[in-house]
Amino acid sequence: MEYDSGPAIVVSKDNNMDGERAPGHDADALIKPDMPAVLERTNLSVNVQGFLLPVFEALSNSMDGIEQRFDDQASRRGKILVKFENLNDPDKVMISVTDNGVGLNDENYRSFRTPFSGYKLSKRGRGFGRFIAFKVFSRIHYSSRFETAAAEATKTFRFDISQDEEIIFHDGEPDFPGCGLCVELDEPLNDWFDLIGGLSKQDVKDQIGSHFLPYFLYRGLPEILLQFDDEEPENITSYFKAVFVEHAAGQIDTAIDGTTCTLNYTLTKIPKTKQFKSHCLLFAAADRIVGHPRDLSNKLGATHFVDEDDSKFIIVAVVRGDAFETRLNDSRTSLDLPPKAVEEIVGAVCDKIQDREKQQIEKIKTGQAQKLNIALHENPILRLGLKGQSLSEYVAKKPNHWGPEEFVQDLALSRYRNTGDLLKQITEAANDPASYAEKIKDLASRIDAGKKEALAEYVIHRKSIIELLDAARKFDDSKKRGSEDEVHSLIFRRFSDSVDIEYFQHNLWLIDDALAFLPYVSSDRTMHGGGRKKGDKVTDLLFYDDTMVLGDEDGTTLTIVEFKKPSRDDYSFGPAKSDPVTQVIDTLEKAIAAGGITRTDGAHMSFERVARRSAFIIADLTPSLIKILKRHNFQNPHDPKIWTHYFDNGEIFIQAFGYDTLVSMAKKRNQAFSKVLLDD
After folding, report:
1. What Gene3D superfamilies does its record include (predicted)?
2. Any alpha helices (H) in 473-579, and if so which ranges?
3. Residues 332, 228: one domain?
C-alpha cells in the first residue's frame, strides 16, 4: 500500500537524526508547492462531516495498509482502533487512528512524500487526502513500525506544512505492538471549537457508518473499534453490518454528457432513526460517499415506510460506477455531474424502489385516493376532470407526493381544457387588459364560487402583471419612470415574508418560477426582524433553501435579489452605494454573519452551514453598469443580455440582467403556461 500522497514535500532529516539525507531522498526531484495557499482555496464545511474528514482519510489509508499486508485475509486479520480523547474539549481533544497494516516502510514513505503516486491513482485516490487534515487540526503526528530486510524499523515524526522542514523526525517508539501506523490529530483550529463542544458519540459513530457505507454493502471491512477515553471499545464494523443489510441490487443505465453509462445500485433497508430518518440516494466513488445525497421522500411520497410490525424504516440507495470515478474532485468530496444526469439517476432509482416496495406504494396511493374523494365531495364539479377514470386509476398516474390541493388544481386544469365556451370567455377577457380584473372576477363568480376555480383567473392575471412590469420601466404621461420600489412591490410585497404570503399573492415567477417554491422568502426586512438600524444590510429579496441529508442539514442555500431603478446610469466601481455587485456580496456576507433571520411571526430561522449562495441583480444594462460588470470579470458568452460571474473566494454566483430581459423571459414562460391551460 502507498499512503495518500499529496504534492511533494522537502525533507532535510531522516530517522538517523544526524542531518544527513536518508538514502533514496532525491531533493532535486521534489517540488515544494505552496500548500497553505492551496488549502486556503479548498473549502470545507464546518459541520460534523467536515470535522471528521481527516479521520475518514486516515481510516481509508489504514484499510489500504491492511489490504497490502494481509491481501485477501484483510477483513479477517485487519484491526483499526479509532480513539477520541476529551471529545468535547477543544483544548484537549485528541483523535488517533491506529492500524496493524504494513506500516510506513521505505516504499510507502516515498509515496507519502511523492505527488500523485501511481499506486494511489490506481486505488482511485487523488493524492490530496492527508493535507485536508490541516483544514481542521494544526498538529498531525505519525508513528509507524514496519519490517525491513534485516529487522523491524520505526519512523516517528510530526508533519507540518507550515514549516520549512515539513517533516520533523524525533526519537521514540510507537506505543502499539507489531507493524502498523498511528496517526494522531489534535490542536484543532479555532473555527471548529463551537462544533467540538456539541459533538456527541452517536454523531461520530453514525458519520463513520454513513461515510463508509459502500464498504459495509459490497466490500469487506477489517475490524474497526471505536473508543472514547477509557471506555470499552465498540466494534462498529459488526454494528453497521447488522444495520446496513443489502435489500436489493442491480444496474441502471443513464446518459452522462451524451454517453450512456451503466451504474450499479444497492438498496438498503434500515430502521428510521434520528440520523437516518428519510429515504435518500447516495453517490459513491473511491469506496466512499461523495457529493450531496438526495432526499427521495418527494418522489416516493413518504419520508419513511412502515412494515407489518408497525416499525418505521427507510430505504438508502447507493449508486456507483466507473463514470463517477473520473468525475471525482481531488479532495474526493464531490462529483461533477450534470443536473439532468442526477435527475435521471434519481428517477431510475426511485422506480427500482417502487418496484421493490409495491405494498408501500399501494398504501400511499390508497391514501391519496381517499383524501381526493373527500375533496371532491366539496367540489363535485371537478369530477369532470377525471374523464371517466376511477379515482384509483387517476391517482396511479400522478406523483406520489401530491396532496388534495395538487389533485384539485390538476382536475381544474383538465376541466378547463375541455370546456370550449369557458376558454372563449377567458380569451376575450384577456384581450382587454384595462378591465380584465372586473371581467375575470365576474366570470369566475358565475362559473363556480369555490376557490379551486381561481386558476383560470390567475392565468390572465399573470399576463396583466407582465404588462404592468413592462409599463413600470417606461415613461408615463409625465415623462417619469417607475422606481425600483414599484417593481419590487409588484413582484413581492415589501416589508413582508412568506409566513403569511401564499403563492397566488406574489409574482416571484417574474424572476424565476423555481424561486416561488423555496421554503422561505423575506422582502425588504432586516435580519433581526425589527426596524432598520445603523449598519444593517437589508435585502430587497432573500431566499432560503436547505437540503436534507440522512436526517441532517447538508447545507443552506441563500439567494438574494437586488432591484435598481430602471434606466439608472450613474454606477461606479467599488463602494456598495454605487456598485451593485459589491452591494450584493456585502449583503450576503452580512446575512451569513447574522446566522439567521427573524420571521414576521417571531420565529428565528437559522442559516447553518451555508454552502451555496447566489444573487440576481435586476437593473437595466446601461453603459456605467456594463463597465462595472466587466471590471468584476462578468461574462455573457451564452446570452449578450445576461451577465454572470462566479466569485471563487466567496463562493457566490451572480446573474445580472435588465428589465427588458426580465419582461421577455416572463412572457415566454407565461406563453407556455397559457398553452397548457388554454391551448393557446
Report:
1. Histidine kinase-like ATPase, C-terminal domain
2. 484-491
3. no
